[in-house]
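Re: beginner question about structure tokens

> Can someone show what the tokenized structure looks like for a real chain? I only ever see the sequence side.

Sure, here's an example I had lying around. Input first:
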Amino acid sequence: MKNICFCFQMHAPYKMKRYRFFEIGQDHYYYDDMQTEEHMEYIVNASYIPLCHTIKEMIRLSKGRFHCALSITGIALEMFQQFAPEMIDILKELAETGCVEFVATPYAYSLATVYSETESAEQLKLQQAMTKELFGVQSTTICNTELVYSDEIAIQLYQQGYKTIMTEGAKHILSWKSPNYVYQSASAPKMKVLMRNSNLSDELAFHFADPNWYNYPIDAEKFTAQLAALAEEEQVANIWVDAETFGVRQHSNSGIFEFLKALPYHAMDKSIGFMTPSEVAKKFSNNDVVVAPYPITWAGEAKDLSIYTGNDLQNEALQKLYAVAERVHLCQDKQLKRDWLLLQDVNHFHYMNHIDQGATHFESAYDAFINYMNVLSDFLQRVDEQYPTTIENEELNELLKTINNQEMEIAKLEEQIKALKKKERVAKK
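And the corresponding structure tokens:
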């Protein structure tokens, strides 16, 4: 039996305001609240709410046989709470069905797994804690920012407790192999690797309403026929897209939501099931080993980091940002830590490479870079005021070690308190 593993990603960045050189040291607020709220309200109403209602309807009509995953950043969840609380209610309803997996993803949609292992672990803990608090769920499956994956990242994330990682079925990694199997990480043999089927995913994301596409018009019957035609031994087609595919990139009048609603009927008619990433990893054994010495992503033609790190502007911004990671971790200033998270959003670095029409108010990649560096200059000054660059790294490391030891001791004592309270309750009974 063939299976489809759907994953819908939700994230939107806080929009930066025009921040000029003379504001450095004078103004510590970097965001355009009006533009951020307008953008979030637009994608929530045009895409996220209709998509969630559609998923709920698909679960109901299939009598619980439709399963899928959601990858939602902590920043997106914050925005829902602030600008669209109805989204939280809808997501809670989906969580209660037991048919939707909320996979782990970096809180700030950052490249921390590439630049700072400590920061990466912290962001994943924050995002997992938020999904646990809001929806009562957690996952040992991770969908990294832009599906970033490498052998080194696999080790890092496996050591943090993740059992399954989702990434792009990049041709230069898979070669002649199919993405429709479960793979084993070469560097972390106990970690399972699921590979995105880029052909089927991109057909929905970019070609659904394209009259020049060879398979146009795309309907549920035709789409499931492609899946049914896969080799008998191929286990699962991983179809992972931005949630904005539905209603924003492909407008509602294209029939994209009707396509989704019809999909379970035609899939089950062809004996095609639906699974979450965790279910896929649990059911199927590893088919082969995947080796990725350099990071791969789902972005661009090269399927690497070049969209975010491909020019000198991006590299300068990233290096300066993550150079202060240890100092920020020592800070107690809540607003500083908050800015640290928001400044890591991968979209800032994407804008320094390419400006999507309507995505931002910057006129060019260089314009986006200058604005970001002005903001970063002010941010670095604030960090330096708390932990000056004159402090040696060895001294910082000792401070971090002390803090980490204290946190571990506190966690241990909290566990002991819980155990004693549980013991006391049992004794009273």
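Each token stands for a local structural state, so reading them left to right follows the chain. The radius of gyration is 22 Å.
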